[in-house]
Amino acid sequence: MSEARAWRDDAWSPVAPAPESELDAARQAEAAADRRAGEKGEEGEETHANPARAGATSSGDEARKGAAGAEGQGKPPVPPRPARSFRNGASRSLSTPSSSPTGPKATFAAREEINATIELLCGNAQSFVDLHVDALVNRTNERLNDWSGLSSEILARAGPMLEEECSHVPSKCHIGEAKITAGCQLHAAYVIHTVGPKFSTQYETAAQSALHMCYRNVLTICKERRLRSVAMPLLYSRERGYPREDGAQTAVRTIRRFLDHFVDDFDRVVLYLGNDAEDTAHIRRALALYCPRSRAEEVWSMSVLPENTGNEWGEIVLEDRRVRISSSFPSVTSTVDGNYMPVGRPGPPPPPPARAFTEVVYGVDTLVDNLAYTRLLERADDEDFKDMVALNIIYRGGNDMMGRPIVVIAAANLTHEVREERLLLYFVHVCDKLSRHPKGFVVVFFDHPGASEHLPGLSWFKHQYEEVIGRKYKKNLRRMYVVHATWQLKALFWGAMPFVSSKFWDKFYYLDSLEELYRYIPAECILLPSVVFRHDKRLEVQAAQSWF
Questions:
Q1: Residues in domain CRAL-TRIO (predicted)?
Q2: How far apart are alpha carbons 378 and 370 in whole angstroms?
């Protein structure tokens, strides 16, 4: 059976010529570099450039003899060799790092801990489904019942219980999203299901964003669930027309950026490549580009790196697609990109992200909404909320494992003396700054029997959602957990479905107990009122009694 190999130890390198035997030639090139280092007496160069990767270009056997020697004498990078461009395959000449030891800083610097975490696995499907990891990733369809390709191998190996688990997932898994189920008969404790995008040249940016979100959502679930090892196949497919090179770069770039933030939370991230030589070549080149292992690969990376390498999470954002609101609003006879569309003739629909953005931003109503919210915020700043603080209805309850602030709403503490308007002002007072947090924010709502009598009605919620609450709340809300929901509250949310965006419901979770909540937010991360603990215990006792 094939075994996963850490990218750090992979023999292939873009700064070496393509040999008949890649492994032998790579070792010979590294040994030659060592001999040249001894002859020239060059010391400490790569240690100065990147201490974490000192000696990374030494031969595999010498590199394992201990770090002491490597720290005393750094190994110089491989000298100039022709390299193939990622984009067009053109041959390029590299300048040696030794010629500029203090040269420009690499956009993607070599990081030993990341290169040791990422692993490559080639082989048949059995070698993937039998991996001993915390989670396997399944590229599937929206209903999680794809019996083709690798997905069928996972479903067959996991047994009928996994099918049963998937059938009870409350909502579809849309493109770019991820859902988690138990691993059942797999060695992996969990299976994370995701749906890759279809590729269209017309909507290329949307496809790239969707693929980026596939990888990012998978890793986010691992981070939130404390799953330290995950194995994933390529989440883009030929069946959906996704270009292999572009897919590889999006995948590796997203993984690298995520590990830049959270590498300490992972032991293994295994990329399964099957037996496809083309995919293996593209992934290796992308890894050398975004996860260089030496100063030589850093220099090579800088010479062929695309101009746009995305934001801090690796997502490509095109500047010319960013729409700015100006004093003159676009008319209904123009498209999002500003192209003229004759009246009476239906023009091409804008790409999905642009259409969603248009629905939220364009129009005078948006300015009116912003003005209404600004006035509301000014009023909230002038209020004295000592009574609301004492009631402990809405407060910041800590940060989740992703560093996102948690807003706790305890419905049990709401009384009939609290007027709807004052409740809204206090909500804005607490949440305004949190909603602007760069990582977004999380809301945990604890329901309680009888609380619905004090909650505002559906029409009030509809008005605040549509006309007052700003776009930043809707956009920056990352999760909403509703714990101990009563049927009255569920009916209220059900009535809100027609006027609330489907994107909101994708972030929405019903949880029956604190035990379920702690799977998403550890107990030590959130501060809860005593009334919540008492109610949870009461429900636990009732459930036990009903069982008997």
A1: 381-540
A2: 12
User: Which residue has tokens 């509809």?
Assistant: 462
Beta strands 135-139 and 118-122, pairing class: unpaired
Q: What is the pTM of this model?
A: 0.51
In a domain, 180, yes or no: yes
The Cα 130–Cα 128 span in angstroms is 5
Residues 6+ apart with CB under 8 A from 451: 411, 412, 414, 486, 489
- What is the model's pLDDT at position 329? 35
For 524, counting Cβ atoms within 10 Å of its Cβ (0-12 exposed, 13-18 middle, 19+ buried), the class is exposed
Per the CB < 8 A criterion, the answer to whether 267 and 229 are in contact is yes
Q: List the one residue out of 404, 398, 396, 353 whose CA is nearest residue 220.
A: 404
Strand 229-233 versus strand 135-139 pairing type: parallel
Tally helices (H) and strands (E) across the chain. Answer: 22, 14
Asked whether residue 333 is assigned to any structural domain, the reply reads no
What percent of the chain has pLDDT above 70? 69
Please tell me which residue, 71 or 222, carries the higher pLDDT value.
Answer: 222
Residue 22, pLDDT > 60, answer: no
Longest CA–CA separation in the chain, Å? 85
Give the domain extent around 370: 364-547
Dig out the tokens for 402 from the structure: 């992703």
Query: Which structure tokens are listed for 293?
Result: 């292992």
**Structure-token pair, residue 444:** 């945990």
Q: Give the whole-angstrom CA distance, residue 367 versus residue 363.
A: 8
Alpha-carbon distance of 287 to 266, in angstroms, equals: 18
Mean pLDDT, the chain, integer: 75
**CB atoms closer than 10 angstroms to residue 261:** 15
- d(CA 366, CA 336) in angstroms, rounded, equals 16
The β-bridge relationship of strands 118-122 and 268-274 is parallel
Residue 262 lies in a domain: yes
If asked whether residues 381 and 452 sit together in one domain, one would say: yes
C-beta separation of 150 from 295 below 8 A:
no
- Is the predicted pLDDT of residue 297 greater than 50, yes or no? yes
Residue 540, classed as helix, strand or coil, is helix
